[in-house]
């Protein structure tokens, strides 16, 4: 939905003091624009509501939602942690000056070379996915004579109401080991007990993404606290940390359910405090909810094609290469004409891109007002999983990324044709 620092001046949209049209013409379209004040006020909510007097709380930003050195600096300055899904993520974070001890390294199939890289970099926590990975990690630490602290990923089997592709806690999900397989869990703790290099600080779970229902998060917290204290007493092993993952939903459409983030976070804290589990550290890993609704994409409209079959298409100069989510998850977005806000939205169109694919859709069956050639079209809530999932399909160029507060910060320049040749041998 519309980010809160957007306003209408002379029938045109502007972010703070900058008209969207002028950002589009200065930096080119498509263009990813982030409302920095919007992101920072989201971060404030997390910092205020996710606190406890009983244990330390750690906010781990899930960088897969959007990763850029400029934002790494903001996170670093506010002492947030970051989750990395690959050594590529770790590399970008370290190159940005992000503190390695605040990196939490994930992945269900890390290679030996990647584990070695992470151990050598001194990442704060490695989240181990399975017993095979644990045994390999121990060997690597022995070889390097280096110790490492880990969390172990488990699957609490909590069904969350979201798209199948972003559910991660079905009994058949590929991530972690099931909390119901206690024999395996005991075996894993034994492996930890009998080596001096890799220590187990606690468990990690993540139930899925774009979840608006508070109940699933509370259930996850309850189940994980119970599981942690059972395993701790069953195996006589101290477990002092718990990571409950991310997944907090945002609003994409007017009719999407409201998400009371503050309430969700306080409920999680209350649930963990009430469980009686004695913890030193509780982590969560929000991605989408930090950046998603403070980002938007600008496109330039070219033409409304009215087909013989009756369907109307609004052609814009981007599409599935800068936003794969409609094609991949049937995701829906709110679209507006930033050059002409007023007027009845009475034209039903599919907003589509330029790729050689019928699925190259930015917004399906959406309503828009009168659009003229070269109008600036804005798509809201594209701050998460759009830039990070962008591609060069059809040799399309990746858009620039700017952050806007009182000033404009170019976070990533627009790709140029010459960038397309950088990997090829001639
Ligand atoms: N922690 C772990 C271990 C995760 O796997 C994820 C997301 C998160 C945290 C952050 O979840 P968030 O707070 O952003 O919901 N590409 C999909 C989303 C995939 C999410 C993958 N894991 C999309 O565009 O909807």
What does this structure look like?
- The chain is α/β, with parallel strands linked by helices and 426 residues long.
- The protein folds into two domains: 160 residues, Lyase, Ornithine Decarboxylase, Chain A, domain 1, CATH 2.40.37.10; 253 residues, Alpha-Beta Barrel (TIM Barrel).
- The chain is 28% helix and 25% strand.
- It contains eleven helices and 21 strands.
- Strands 4, 14, 15, 16, 17, 18, 19, 20 and 21 form a nine-stranded mixed sheet that branches. An eight-stranded parallel beta barrel has the order 5-6-7-8-9-11-12-13, surrounded by five helices. A three-stranded antiparallel sheet has the order 1-2-3.
- Helix 2 runs parallel beside helix 9.
- The longest helix is centred in the middle third of the chain and has 22 residues.
- It is globular.
- The structure holds ligand LLP.
- The site of ligand LLP has 22 residues, from helix 10 and helix 11.
């Amino acid at each position: 939905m519309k980010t809160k620092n957007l306003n209408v001046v002379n029938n045109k949209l502007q972010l703070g003091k900058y008209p969207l049209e002028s950002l589009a013409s200065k930096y080119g379209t498509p263009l990813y624009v982030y409302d920095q004040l919007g992101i920072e006020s989201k971060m404030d909510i997390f910092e205020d509501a996710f606190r406890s007097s009983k244990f330390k709380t750690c906010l781990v930003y899930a960088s897969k939602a959007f990763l850029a050195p400029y934002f790494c600096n903001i996170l670093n300055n506010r002492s947030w942690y970051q989750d990395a899904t690959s050594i590529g993520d770790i590399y970008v974070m370290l190159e940005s000056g992000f503190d390695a001890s605040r990196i939490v390294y994930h992945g269900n199939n890390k290679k030996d070379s990647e584990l070695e890289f992470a151990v050598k970099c001194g990442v704060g926590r490695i989240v181990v996915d399975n017993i095979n990975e644990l045994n390999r990690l121990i060997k690597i630490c022995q070889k390097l004579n280096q110790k490492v602290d880990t969390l172990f990923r488990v699957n609490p089997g909590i069904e969350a109401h979201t798209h199948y592709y972003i559910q991660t806690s079905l009994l058949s999900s590929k991530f972690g080991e099931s909390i119901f397989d206690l024999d395996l869990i005991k075996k894993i703790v034994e492996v930890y007990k009998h080596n001096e290099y890799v220590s187990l600080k606690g468990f990690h779970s993540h139930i899925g993404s774009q979840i608006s229902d508070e109940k699933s998060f509370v259930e996850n917290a309850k189940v994980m606290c119970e599981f942690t204290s059972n395993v701790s007493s069953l195996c006589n092993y101290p477990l002092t940390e718990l990571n409950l993952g991310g997944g907090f939903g945002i609003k994409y459409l007017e009719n999407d359910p409201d998400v009371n983030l503050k309430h969700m976070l306080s409920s999680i804290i209350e649930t963990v405090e009430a469980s009686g589990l004695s913890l030193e550290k509780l982590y969560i890993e929000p991605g989408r909810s930090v950046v998603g609704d403070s980002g938007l994409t600008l496109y330039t409209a070219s033409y409304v094609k009215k087909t013989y079959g009756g369907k109307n298409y609004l052609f814009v100069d981007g599409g599935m290469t800068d936003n794969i989510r409609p094609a991949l998850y049937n995701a829906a977005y709110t679209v507006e004409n930033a050059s002409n806000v007023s007027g009845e939205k009475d034209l039903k169109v599919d907003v589509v891109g330029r790729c050689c694919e019928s699925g190259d859709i930015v917004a399906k069956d959406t309503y828009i007002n009168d659009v003229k050639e070269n109008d600036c079209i804005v798509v809201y809530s594209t701050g998460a999983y759009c830039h990070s999932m962008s591609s060069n399909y059809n040799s399309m160029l990746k858009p620039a990324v700017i952050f806007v507060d009182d000033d404009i910060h170019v976070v990533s320049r627009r790709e140029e044709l010459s960038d397309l040749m950088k990997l090829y041998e001639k």
